Task: inverse folding
């Protein structure tokens, strides 16, 4: 890497600009800036992408576990529904027997049982949906926070280890010389 940097920064390779000034050609300066930014992003972003994939895999597993738990809750609710239906059939049979005898109180009990069963099922469904929503939001927030922290750690570590004062000055000098060469070619 040092040989490449030394090659790019050697005075013999870059022609002298003759004078220093502002380059008002927006197109050429943006291309240079974009190429520098893209190079830095590609160089520093490799580690961040790998850690992001690990975090996404962890998030996927948590979401799948939450879905499995919700399915188990759903299975329990279905079992309760079957029990309630069996009890309802039993109550209906008793109601038919007592209706033949003229008792209307059993009908009221049946309606109360049905209403309470539906209310219980609605509450269970509501709790299940709230739990899923809460777990998904919590996992999303954790993943966002971890990705941001990991990206910041990797970027700062890479910058601290790779960018020292000498390299920074050489990069600035090379960019100034390159701008001068571009201006000289245009003139």
Result:
């Amino acid at each position: 890497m040092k040989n490449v940097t030394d090659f790019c920064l050697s005075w013999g390779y870059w022609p002298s600009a003759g004078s220093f000034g502002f380059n008002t050609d927006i197109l050429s300066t943006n291309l240079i800036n974009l190429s520098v930014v893209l190079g830095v992003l590609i160089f520093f972003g490799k580690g961040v992408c790998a850690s992001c994939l690990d975090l996404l895999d962890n998030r996927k597993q948590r979401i799948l576990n939450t879905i499995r738990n919700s399915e188990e809750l759903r299975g329990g609710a279905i079992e309760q529904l079957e029990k309630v239906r069996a009890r309802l059939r039993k109550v209906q049979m008793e109601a038919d027997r007592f209706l033949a005898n003229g008792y209307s109180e059993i009908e009221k009990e049946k309606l109360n049982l049905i209403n309470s069963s539906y209310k219980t099922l609605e509450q269970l469904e509501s709790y299940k949906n709230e739990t899923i929503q809460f777990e998904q939001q919590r996992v999303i927030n954790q993943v966002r926070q971890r990705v941001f922290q990991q990206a910041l750690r990797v970027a700062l570590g890479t910058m601290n280890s790779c960018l020292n004062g000498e390299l920074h000055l050489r990069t600035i000098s090379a960019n100034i010389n390159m701008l001068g060469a571009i201006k000289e070619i245009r003139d």
